[in-house]
Amino acid sequence: MEPKKNPQLDVNRNSLLYFFVGMTLVLLMAYMALEWKSYYPTSDWETSQVNPDLLIEDEPPITFQKLELPKPKIQTPPIIDVVEDEKDIEETVIEASEPDQSTEVAPIESIEVAEEEITEEIPIVLVENAPIFPGCEKEKTEEDKRDCFQKMIQKHIRKNFRYPDPAKEMGLQGRVSIMFTIEKDGNIDNVRLRGPHKSLEEEAARIISKLPNMKPGQQRGMPVKVSYSIPITFKLN
């Protein structure tokens, strides 16, 4: 037989009520904490608390300034000198410089035209009259002279060609590109070389240095500098 519990002594009898009451108190305290406002203490002497009607407005005094009028300027009259008329005055007659029908025209042959000196280098394929290699003077046409120039350059290279010993020992071979300038006096100058090794470039420069003096190229009847380029191939057998 189970003992009967007294419902008045049951602990869980009003637990739900106590829960809602506690929650209500917590929410009320949280609301009061969020809505709580505090202010700093203020003084009666602050400017914002002073009655603006009690302030005394300082009005500047009205003063009058007497302006002095400038003194009038007395301008002296100009002195006029009377000059007597000159009777004998020679008038200079200026003649018109513009040409008219009676103006003599100078003949074209008597007009001297200043010759313009050409300072830049002209490639041999563009110059009017190519340089003439010694032995090519007998050629009549300009095309024949250019062909003779090419052949004589090739002949000169074959005649003076010598394979450098250091290049042979190291097995060096390749092509050396050469560009030089035939000056206005026919001399060879401004030699530029590019090759695979210095020894090959030195041998190519030695061959070019042995070129003879040539007849310079001409442009519009004037001697000019002419640039020429040629490769030399070094190949071991």
Describe the structure.
- The protein has a domain at 122-234: Fusion Protein Consisting Of Minor Coat Protein, Glycine Rich Linker, Tola, And A His Tag, Chain: A, Domain 2.
- Helix content is 24%, strand content 13%.
- The chain is built from four helices and six strands, in the order αβααββαβββ.
- It has helices at residues 15-35, 142-160, 165-170, 198-209; strands at 122-123, 174-182, 188-194, 218-219, 222-223, 226-234.
- It has a four-stranded mixed beta sheet with strand order 1-6-2-3, with helices on one face.
- The chain is flat and about 150 Å long.
- The termini are far apart.
- The chain crosses the membrane at residues 16-34.
- InterPro entries: TonB, TonB-dependent_transducer, TonB/TolA_C, TonB_C.
- It holds the Pfam family TonB_C.
Q: Which characteristics define this entry?
A:
alpha+beta, 237 residues, 4 helices, two-stranded antiparallel ribbon, Fusion Protein Consisting Of Minor Coat Protein, Glycine Rich Linker, Tola, And A His Tag, Chain: A, Domain 2, four-stranded mixed sheet
Structural class: alpha+beta
What kind of oligomer do you see? single chain
Report the CATH architecture of the domain at 122-234. Answer: 2-Layer Sandwich
Beta-strand residue fraction: 5-15%
Number of helical regions: 4
C-alpha end-to-end distance? 131 Å
Identify the overall geometry. Answer: flat
Please describe the biggest sheet, giving its number of strands, its sense, and whether it closes into a barrel. 4 strands, mixed
CATH topology of the domain at 122-234: the name is Fusion Protein Consisting Of Minor Coat Protein, Glycine Rich Linker, Tola, And A His Tag, Chain: A, Domain 2
Q: Return the string of H and E elements.
A: HEHHEEHEEE
Instruction: Return the CATH class of the domain at 122-234.
Output: Alpha Beta
Radius of gyration: 58 Å
Number of strands: 6
Q: Low-confidence segments, ≥5 residues, pLDDT <50?
A: none
Helix content: 10-25%
